[in-house]
């Protein structure tokens, strides 16, 4: 793990990006018993290319995401607390622990399950973020793959004694992230900022960008105060964003800054299937139902963790 201390004044740009809108992440049901705060993929922000969905998920005992398909996108799962098992019909399986990430490319088709690996003894939820990212047209039919990033591999920038930045993907204060984790160009920075802290974070030109707040209150461009569980959509104009936590605040702020390169292509989405045309979507359903063109391995397959999940659920209902 790489760390570097650097004054927060070393990165200066003008003008900053303005705020387009602030979208509350309202809690809702998803999967099987899961609760999520969704801020992209709602009526307020259907999509924000290349981003298709952002869920802040909370999985308590008996909740999870049993066997389900994907095609045409990538998913980025960031485990904030607890742990999650995953398994798919290619034979891939594993566990991401607190602080780990999984980059999954669905490509031409995959069916997998995501189930909590552990349930904290205090009854707290397994918590994380899951981001869906559109694949460029040339990669819609690529073979599925995974890339795991362990917490110990993530470099950290320290602009001041009040700010820590996990550089998961992208660049911040002289720190570069691990490369080649996703096909789609995306920056993901996880910032922990104590009262009195501040940063000026450059963002790639013409990329769409937003900030999602998970704890505390932040101030953007020295003018707009934003509370937790909000998605701040930024304009494309400007070099970056100024973020601070007022010294009068009593809580540490925890938030992520994300940016992605939008592809010049149509997006037609039906649930977990993301294609370029309605015809492609109809063909995807046909392929999925008939076990072909990427879904051949689904026939007769059922994940072990999915079966165990339903067995536990039935047992808990009987008790």
Features:
single chain, 319 residues, mainly beta, Jelly Rolls, 8-stranded mixed β-sheet, 7-stranded antiparallel β-sheet, 2 helices, 27 strands, 47% strand, Pirin_N_dom, Pirin, metal-binding, metal ion binding
Describe the structure.
This protein has 319 residues and is mainly beta. It has one domain (3-277, 297-315): Jelly Rolls (Sandwich), CATH 2.60.120. The protein is 9% helix and 47% strand. The strands form 6 sheets. It has an 8-stranded mixed sheet, with no helix packed on it. A 7-stranded antiparallel sheet has the order 3-4-5-12-7-10-13, with no helix packed on it. The chain has a 4-stranded antiparallel sheet with strand order 6-11-8-9, with helices on one face. The N and C termini lie far apart (46 Å). Its cofactor is Fe cation.
Average predicted local confidence, pLDDT: 92
Oligomer: single chain
> How much helix, percentage-wise, in residues?
under 10%
CATH domain fold name: Jelly Rolls
Structural class by sheet pairing and helices:
mainly beta
The CATH architecture can be given as Sandwich
- Unreliably modeled segments: 6-10
What is the ordering of alpha helices and beta strands? EEEEEEEEEEEEEEEEEEEEEEEEEEEHH
- How many beta-strand segments? 27
Strand order of the main beta sheet, please? 1-14-15-18-25-20-23-2
- Which superfamily, in CATH terms, is the homologous superfamily? Jelly Rolls
Strand % is over 45%
Q: What overall geometry do the principal axes of the alpha carbons give?
A: globular
**Tally of helical runs:** 2
| CATH top level assignment | Mainly Beta
Task: Please report the distance between the alpha carbons of the first and last residues.
Answer: 46 Å
